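Tutorial handout. Part one gives the primary structure; part two gives the three-dimensional structure as C-alpha cells.
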Amino acid sequence: MNCGARQQENADIPNAELADRIGLSPSACLRRVAKLRQSGVIRKTVAVIDPTQVGRPLGAVINLEFHRHGNQYRQDFIRKVRKLDAVRQCHVVTGEVTGVMILHMRDMAEYTALCETLFDADDNIVWYRTYIITETLKDEFGPAI
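Part two.
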C-alpha cells in the first residue's frame, strides 16, 4: 500500500492513524511530517472546495501568448494574475503557447471583466483562447507518488 498517496488524498486523518498505517510510532510520524514540511516536500495543507458549492460554477482553461518574454513583462503579468481570485492556477509552459490558466468564475460577466482587465488591456498579450469546462473527468492535486 502506498500510504504517501493515500495521505495526499486525505491529509485530515489523525497522526495516530497515519503512524499506524506506515508502521511508525506517533512521535516518529510527527517528526517525519515536520521534516517533510521543513524540507518543502509538503508545501501546504489545504481543503479542496467544490467551486459550484461556493458560487463559482463556471470553469475555464485559457491558453495565452506573450508578445515579449522578458522578465519584467512576466513579472507584470504575474502581479496581475495573483490579485485575481478567479485564477486558480497559472503556468508558464513550453510549446505553442506561453501560458495556461485554470479559472473558476461566478458567471460570464466575471469572465468578461477578467478578460478586459487581464488580456485586452495588456499590449503584451498577443492572443488568448478560452475553453469553457463542460465536464471534469479527473481533478487531482499534487504529483502521483
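Part three, for discussion. The first strand starts at residue 58 and ends at 66. Helices lie at 3-9, 15-22, 26-39, 71-82, 108-120.
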